[in-house]
From TrEMBL:
<keyword id="KW-0406">Ion transport</keyword>
<dbReference type="GO" id="GO:0015159">
    <property type="term" value="F:polysaccharide transmembrane transporter activity"/>
</dbReference>
<keyword id="KW-0472">Membrane</keyword>
<dbReference type="Pfam" id="PF22461">
    <property type="entry name" value="SLBB_2"/>
</dbReference>
<dbReference type="InterPro" id="IPR054765">
    <property type="entry name" value="SLBB_dom"/>
</dbReference>
<feature type="domain" description="SLBB">
    <location>
        <begin position="260"/>
        <end position="345"/>
    </location>
</feature>
<feature type="domain" description="Polysaccharide export protein N-terminal">
    <location>
        <begin position="87"/>
        <end position="170"/>
    </location>
</feature>
<keyword id="KW-0625">Polysaccharide transport</keyword>
<keyword id="KW-0626">Porin</keyword>
<keyword id="KW-0732">Signal</keyword>
<dbReference type="GO" id="GO:0009279">
    <property type="term" value="C:cell outer membrane"/>
</dbReference>
<keyword id="KW-0449">Lipoprotein</keyword>
<protein>
    <submittedName>
        <fullName>Polysaccharide export protein</fullName>
    </submittedName>
</protein>
<dbReference type="GO" id="GO:0015288">
    <property type="term" value="F:porin activity"/>
</dbReference>
<dbReference type="InterPro" id="IPR003715">
    <property type="entry name" value="Poly_export_N"/>
</dbReference>
<keyword id="KW-1134">Transmembrane beta strand</keyword>
<keyword id="KW-0762">Sugar transport</keyword>
Length: 379
């Protein structure tokens, strides 16, 4: 309304002048056709927009749409090559520190005497896979089971000791391990021990960071990547503990910074929401932002705006939920939003009008002041 000049004739009574001013203001309001605040005009979504605008399709959220969405959702299953792997006996690896005990021969078990701890007296497996032991010298250890190494040492010591009783244990594991990267609480190498390590146990030991995306865990094995949706698999009752890790496996847990939805409009706490699972329902989204503003929102104007990769060739979709009906809450509980969706809740018509009037009040005050001043001058 900038640049508008109000001119009121001085002739006639004060009441007549007020009537003319009010009529002029009413005409001004009718001509402005302006409603402050965000407002989603759906006329363009129905093909009435300019030809150069992106192509959109307005899709009501109905029972049929929800049923179609559920039917097209992929059921997550465990890859059989992962569940089919069964760990064998532990194989000694380079970097392991072994504790070799020969009963009744402390000079072999702990040559430095009781003042030296068993940890310090351990026998490390060198990079060449071998270790040194008294009387028998160099011996191959890497690649053998603990039982195989024990029998080998006992057989060689039998030349010097009658019926040697040998025991072999691992003081420190370091030869065989898996690598954890990404949004784990503790990243880096995690050793494999004599007890087989399952996928849930590895995740539990490392912990999961607050910003982790558990729907996109990546297991790399033998040059191949397996993408595992832990959230869906757990909900589906998949036996994740059937996946055992092997030497050289890599686990990467990405963050969910790039997987967000954006909630705008007449909600109590608008802003971005991060995914911690594959999908979220519209009910969950509305609940996380503490619901709609009861006094200002339009329950018939709940939209989910979903973009596409190429707006010039593809048609984006705008899903509309009429939340005025109780049945709509059932639909919202089954309608799944996707990353990068925009959830928008429009304002009620009376809300837009009240905002318009609140912006017009300074102009209205100016008009009333002018009328009162003119009355005072005429007196």
């Amino acid at each position: 309304m900038e640049g508008f000049a109000l001119s009121v004739p001085h002739s006639g009574s004060a009441a007549a002048r007020r009537t003319r001013i009010l009529a002029l203001v009413a005409a001004l309001l009718q001509g402005c056709m302006f409603s402050p605040g965000p407002y989603l005009d759906t006329s363009e979504l129905r093909g009435k927009g300019p030809p150069e605008s992106p192509r959109f399709e307005l899709v009501p959220i109905t029972t049929r749409l929800v049923a179609t969405q559920e039917a097209t959702r992929v059921v997550e299953k465990l890859p059989p090559e992962l569940t089919g792997y069964t760990p064998g006996p532990y194989l000694i690896g380079v970097g392991d520190v072994l504790n070799i005990t020969v009963w009744d021969h402390p000079e072999l078990t702990n040559p430095a005497g009781v003042q030296q701890s068993s940890e310090a007296s351990g026998r490390p497996v060198r990079p060449d896979g071998r270790l040194f032991y008294p009387y028998i010298g160099e011996i191959q250890a890497a690649g053998l089971t603990i039982e195989q190494l024990r029998n080998d040492i006992a057989g060689r010591l039998a030349r010097y000791i009658e019926n040697p009783q040998v025991d072999v244990g691992v003081n420190r594991f370091g030869g065989r391990r898996v690598i954890l990267t990404g949004a784990f609480g503790k990243t880096g190498p995690q050793p494999l021990t004599t007890i087989p390590l399952s996928l849930p146990e590895a995740i539990g030991q490392a912990g999961v960071a607050a910003g982790a995306d558990i729907a996109r865990l990546i297991l790399k094995r033998n040059g191949r990547e397996y993408r595992l949706d832990l959230d869906t698999l757990n909900r589906g009752g998949a036996e994740l503990d059937r996946i055992y890790l092997k030497d050289g496996d890599q686990l990467h847990l990405p963050s969910n910074d790039s997987r967000r939805i954006f909630v705008l409009g007449e909600v109590i706490s608008p802003g971005p929401l991060s995914f911690r699972s594959r999908s979220m329902t519209l009910t969950e989204v509305i609940g996380l932002v503490r619901g709609l503003r009861q006094e200002t929102s339009d329950p018939q104007a709940v939209y989910v705006i979903r973009g596409v990769g190429d707006l010039e060739r593809e048609t984006a979709q705008v899903f509309q939920l009429d939340a005025e009906s109780p049945a709509a809450l059932v639909l919202a509980a089954h309608f799944h939003v996707e990353p990068q969706d925009v959830v928008y809740v429009g304002a009620a018509g009376i809300t837009r009008w009240n905002r318009f009037i609140s912006q017009l009040l300074p102009s209205g005050t100016f008009l009333r002041t002018g009328i009162n001043l003119e009355d005072d001058l005429n007196r």
